[in-house]
Specification:
130 residues; mainly alpha; 2 domains; 8 helices; 78% helix; elongated; membrane; transmembrane; transmembrane helix
Length: 130
C-alpha cells in the first residue's frame, strides 16, 4: 500500500508544484490579511482586558465588588455601569448594589436626569422587566 501511495503522489507532482508556485492571492492581499489579523488581535486583547478588570473589581469583598458582580451577572456594558454608578452615588453612596434592588432609585434618576432620562428608563426596564 505504501508503494501505491507514492506512485499516486508522483503522478500529481506537477499539480502540487503549480499550486505552491501560484501564491499571487497572498502576495496581492497581504496588507488586507495582515490588517484583519491586527484588528482581530487588538479586539481580542481589549475584550480580555475588560473582562479581567470587571472580574478583578467583582472579586473584592466590598459593596463595590458586589455591584460589579451584579453588573457582570446582568451583562451590562461600560455605559450601563457608568449610569448605574452615577445613580448610586446620588442616592445610595454606601451600598451601590441597591440600584439592583430598589427600582425607585432609577425612577428618581429618570425624573432628574433631563437628557439622560430615556437611558435610565431603558436601564430600569432592562433590570426590572416592567
Amino acid at each position: 500500500m505504501n508503494i501505491d501511495f507514492w506512485f499516486l503522489l508522483a503522478g500529481h507532482t506537477d499539480e502540487v508544484s503549480r499550486a505552491f508556485r501560484n501564491r499571487s492571492l497572498l502576495q496581492e492581499n497581504w496588507l488586507l490579511i495582515s490588517g484583519t489579523i491586527v484588528i482581530g488581535v487588538v479586539w481580542l486583547v481589549l475584550y480580555l482586558w475588560e473582562n479581567l478588570q470587571l472580574q478583578r473589581k467583582a472579586n473584592t469583598d466590598t459593596p463595590q465588588g458586589l455591584f460589579y458582580d451584579l453588573c457582570k451577572t446582568h451583562r451590562l456594558n461600560r455605559a450601563d455601569i457608568n449610569y448605574l454608578l452615577r445613580a448610586s452615588t446620588t442616592h445610595c453612596q454606601e451600598q451601590p448594589a441597591m440600584v439592583f434592588i430598589d427600582p425607585a432609585i432609577l425612577h428618581a434618576c429618570t425624573s432628574q436626569a433631563g437628557a439622560d432620562a430615556r437611558y435610565y428608563e431603558l436601564l430600569e426596564e432592562r433590570l426590572f422587566r416592567k
